[in-house]
Amino acid sequence: MKKRFCLYLFLLLFLSFFSTGLVFGSKLKTIIFPYSSIEKLDRKEKIEEPSGIAYHPMRKTLFVVSDDGDIYEIDLNGKILAKKHISAQDNDELDPEGVAINTRTGEVYVAAEEIDGILVIDPATLKITGIFKIINKDEKGKPLFREGGNGFEGIAFVPGKKAGYDRIYICNQHDPPIVMKVPAPSVIKKRFAGKKSLKVLGWFRMPCTDLSGMTYHNSRKTLFILSDFNNTLFEVSTDGKILNQWSVPGQDQEGIAFAGNYVYIAQDSGKIIKAKIQKSFASRCDKK
């Protein structure tokens, strides 16, 4: 009886340990993200399985990518303004998983899981103008991630002092859960510039599994990284220090974007959440 009880207790602890979604390195307390109201952008014109979302400050719109391989431009209330299937001449299955905006040029970046790379897209035509594969080597020449695995899920543009110092951050879902930094590519001409490669300049490991989305907050100068298995949002410095962590609304959260006083969360289940941010969070942004 005692052995059976001990076995039961062990199984209970084991299951509870893994069912909560492991956050294994952070000492910060997880609190609820400070939002005051929430709505779902549930229109007749639905976006199937959105996997990434980004705010375009020049166009005042949102760009969304989906697991179906489509890219959308929508207004801030969810109305679809443009749609196109993302494809390259020799590879129709690019598996877009994240999206970001170059706030200097207006170009759209898409994290393409199938090719372990980045697509550059013209926001006006939604056509690919460049394809950049990430060189899978760390500073010692060793592989950083398992190619073709549970790969690139989130992407963020981080502006530098000038164009040559702009960077792209990419989060790898599993194998392992890391964030990599590469030079920000730019294709000035609005025609396809061919395939190129990008060297990893630096990287850090995240203290959880299943990284699913990412964005950069210009006022706070920090990265915001989602883990949908954990329903957790991390605020992280660009060198990998965990600053805050929150529980976030929704489920299967695969993309996040900030636009004014609102945060948008793309759910793989098919809906986009629009939540109004509390003034306490906004005031901290103003001070930074």
Instruction: State the CATH superfamily name.
Output: TolB, C-terminal domain
Q: How would the global form be characterised? A: globular
Query: What is the terminal-to-terminal distance?
Result: 60 Å
Structural class: mainly beta
Quote the beta fraction: 35-45%
DSSP helix count?
Answer: 2
Low-confidence stretches: 1-22
Helix content: under 10%
Number of strands: 22
- Can you tell me the CATH class? Mainly Beta
Neighbour order of strands in the largest sheet: 1-19-18-17-16
CATH architecture: 6 Propeller
Major sheet summary line: 5 strands, mixed
The overall number of domains is 1
- What is the string of helix and strand elements? HEEEEEEEEEEEEEEEEEEEEEEH
Please tell me how large the radius of gyration is: 19 Å
CATH topology group: Neuraminidase
How confident is the prediction overall: mean pLDDT? 84
What does it look like?
It is globular and about 45 Å long. The longest helix is centred in the N-terminal third of the chain and has 18 residues, at 2-19. The protein contains two helices and 22 strands. Strands 1-19-18-17-16 form a five-stranded mixed beta sheet, with no helix packed on it. A five-stranded mixed beta sheet has the order 7-8-9-10-14, with no helix packed on it. It is mainly beta and 288 residues long. It has one domain: Neuraminidase (6 Propeller). The N and C termini lie far apart (60 Å).
